[in-house]
Amino acid sequence: MESFYHAYRAVNKQEPRVTHMFAEWYQVNGETVHRLTLLNEISRLRGIANQQRLASAADKSLIQRLITKLRGI
């Protein structure tokens, strides 16, 4: 469950509402889901978070190159 919290927060910038219902069933943000669905969602959210980090790093790299170019002028 902790992995889901971390992945959800990284992508959505907010806390998920998760309640264990019974056996392997959970209620996530008002939707009833099975544990296997949560495991797949963790993988999907981690992929999105990784893409966001890469895009952010690329943006910073571009800004750094522009600053360097402007300093050379």
Report what the structure shows:
With 73 residues, this protein is of the alpha+beta class. It has one domain (2-72). It contains 2 helices and 3 strands, in the order αβββα. The chain has helices spanning 2-12, 35-72, and strands at 18-22, 25-28, 31-34. The protein has a 3-stranded antiparallel β-sheet. The protein is rod-shaped, with a radius of gyration of 18 Å. The mean pLDDT is 89.
Which descriptors apply to this entry?
2 helices; 3 strands
Quick structural gist:
The chain is an alpha+beta fold and 73 residues long. The protein has helices at residues 2-12, 35-72; strands at 18-22, 25-28, 31-34. The mean pLDDT is 89.
**What is the alpha-carbon Rg in Å?**
18 Å
Proportion of strand residues: 15-25%
Domains (count): 1
Helix amount = 55-70%
Q: What is the succession of H and E elements? A: HEEEH
Q: In DSSP terms, counting alpha (H) and pi (I) runs of 4 or more, how many helices?
A: 2
Task: Label the structural class.
Answer: alpha+beta
Q: What is the topology, as strand order, of the major beta sheet?
A: 1-2-3
Distance between the termini: 53 Å
The parts where pLDDT drops under 50 for at least 5 residues are none
Instruction: Compute the number of strand runs.
Output: 3
Largest sheet: 3 strands, antiparallel
What is the residue-mean pLDDT, rounded to a whole number?
A: 89
Q: Quick one: overall form?
A: rod-shaped
Write the layout of secondary structure elements.
Elements lengths: L1 H11 L5 E5 L2 E4 L2 E4 H38 L1
Antiparallel strand pairs: 1-2, 2-3
Helix pairs in contact: 1-2
